[in-house]
Write a structure and sequence with these properties.
Layout (H helix, E strand, L loop, with lengths): L1 H18 L11 E5 L12 E5 L3 H6 L1 E2 L3 E2 L15 H11 L6 E5 L3 H13 L4 E5 L3 H7 L4 E2 L24 H8 L6 E4 L3 H4 L8 E4 L3 E3 L2 H9 L11 E4 L3 H14 L4 E3 L3 H5 L8 E5 L22 H27 L1
Parallel strand pairs: 1-6, 2-4, 2-5, 5-6, 8-10, 8-11, 11-12
Antiparallel strand pairs: 3-7, 9-13
Helix pairs in contact: 1-6, 4-9, 8-9
């Protein structure tokens, strides 16, 4: 069984590398940090780009001048699953971001902002600076810096050329193997204490990954405000939360806020609890539909009914269907 899990992990990693062919070489260390609002009190300089993570309509209506509109839905697929690197790189290419630039990430909602920042970091962006202060209020106070946000184009030109930081990603099979290692890793669970202990079930199964420690995101934020950091962890930590959206945002908070040496298991509880046979501590089940919360997050707002990747796929499918119908009609007429 361990061989099967290891094969799955290796295969997944190989697919990710193949998807990013052309971006070879070791990924640069990079910088992922929080910064004050002063970072956007002047137009971006050479080698800088502003990324606005607010809902698309809000960003395109009024943002910081020259800002690129990129939200969580641009990187998430069906039921909140994280898109492949190939899809994410296409999205970044259509946005006009270059991997060598410093991305200044702004927004109003911390999860949205930190998730997008974390995705950029994992994809190999050279430097990411995350502005803590909500950007909508800042725009209102500084109208001279305001302007419509830039939507993505239809084509990825030039292609995004980041080198993914694959070493910061931990896949399910790898995590399972490491649980049974003589020196298992430190695992940090970013969900609430109630979900960690199985008292609140979100989905069908509650509990946590064996050996994990509960360190909810709100506690991380409180530690950051007090200037505290995590105790040194010799083996490095693996962070996870409910799903890819909250898990990558949690990874960002640990890395940028507490300067933790952490990797991320992006599948999170949604993936771990969804596989029969995976070990679970404090396992519990919900009593019925009324007792079960939603496990997946839409990571968006009502003005964004579909993520960009799924939306593009639907358009492509519709074009193919219409084209096929026209061809059939033309053939029938000739007949």
């Amino acid at each position: 069984m361990a061989v099967a899990y290891r094969s799955e992990s290796v295969l997944t990693a190989l697919l990710l590398v193949i998807a990013c062919v052309g971006y070879g070489g070791a990924a640069p260390p990079g910088v992922l940090e929080y910064t004050a609002v002063g970072a956007v009190e002047h137009p971006p300089g050479p080698g800088e780009v502003i990324v606005d993570t607010r809902p698309r309509k809000q960003c395109e209506s009024a943002s910081l001048r020259g800002a690129i509109c990129l939200g969580p839905r641009d990187f998430l697929g069906y039921r909140g699953a994280l898109a492949s690197f190939r899809q994410i790189f296409w999205v970044l290419g259509t946005s006009g971001i270059h991997a060598g630039e410093t991305a200044i990430v702004v927004g109003d909602h911390r999860l949205r902002r930190d998730f997008v920042a974390g995705v950029l970091y994992l994809c190999g962006q050279r430097q990411i600076r995350i502005v803590r202060a909500p950007v909508t209020g800042f725009i209102g106070r500084h109208p001279a810096l305001a302007g419509p946000g830039r939507p993505r184009s239809e084509l990825a030109a030039p292609l995004y050329a980041g080198r993914p930081r694959l070493r910061r990603l931990v896949f399910r099979g790898e995590l399972l193997n490491r649980l049974y290692h003589p020196s298992p890793p430190e695992i940090l669970d970013g969900r609430s204490d109630r979900r960690f202990w199985g008292a609140h079930v979100r989905g069908t199964v509650g509990g946590h990954i064996p050996g994990a420690s509960s360190l909810p995101l709100d506690r991380v934020e409180a530690m950051e405000r007090r200037g505290r950091s995590l105790p040194a962890i010799d083996r490095g930590a693996i962070a996870y939360a409910a799903n890819p959206y909250t898990g990558i945002a949690y990874f960002t908070a640990l890395t940028a806020g507490l300067h933790a040496d952490a990797d991320v298991y992006p599948g999170g509880w949604v993936q771990w609890s969804g596989r029969a046979g995976d070990p679970i501590d404090m396992a519990s089940r919900c009593a019925g539909p009324d007792d079960c919360g939603r496990l997946y997050t839409d990571a968006g707002h009502s003005d964004e009914p579909l993520d960009a990747i799924a939306y593009t796929g639907l358009i492509a499918a519709a074009v193919l269907v219409i084209t096929a119908a026209l061809v059939v009609r033309a053939v029938r007429r000739k007949g």
